[in-house]
Known about the structure:
Helices cover about 45% and strands about 20% of the residues. The chain has helices at about 10-20, 25-30, 35-45, 65-70, 85-90, 125-135, 155-175, 180-190, 195-205; strands spanning about 55-60, 75-80, 95-100, 110-115, 135-150, 210-215, 220-225.
Amino acid sequence: MTRADLDKDPRDVAAMFDGVARRYDVTNTVLTAGQDRRWRRLTREALALRPGERVLDLAAGTAVSTVELGRSGAWCVAADFSLGMLRAGAHRDVPKAAADALHLPFADGVFDAVTISFGLRNVSDTDMALAELARVTRPGGRLVICEFSRPNLAPFRAAYYLGLERILPAIAERVSSNPAAYSYLGESIRAWSPQPELAARIEQAGWTDVAWRDLVNGAVALHRARRP
């Protein structure tokens, strides 16, 4: 079984996601008790998309998130560096592109909005990825990041991290096509930046009006920002 390490070598991360692709969607729904659907809807609403706008859905995986974004009437492209994930979503009728978050294959300022859900923490250079997202977004365009985050209350945080360590791998063993990958995913969540730190990094990458909304007591957060 393939898993990545926290040094986030792009080849290892891509291979790991290739390995989970076949049952990725059903595994996510089981692990989140169906909350993944709500988070996709809230991401779409936070972007405030309008019909005809151009939207980049980065780290889109099997493009289930891109389909949700498309409900707004916007033109949405699913981009991911895991070809296995894109192939697993081939039946979804949205444009797809193989793309490295650190070197996006798009011209400057071509998107009205950009988003990345549960993928930023897997990028080897977070700050460079945020800058690349800013580069391809037009002035006045929007960014929304949906990502696992730091729970606010200490007792809940302790229980949550214990669940990541013990419960998540046990469930993944039953439903995932690559259970070993979920040990890395749990580790990456625990090591990820808390909300204020990520907000500061977003601003340093060239975004303004940065704010966030906690979900599930801060276990997940929606960060939003605007391109000046």
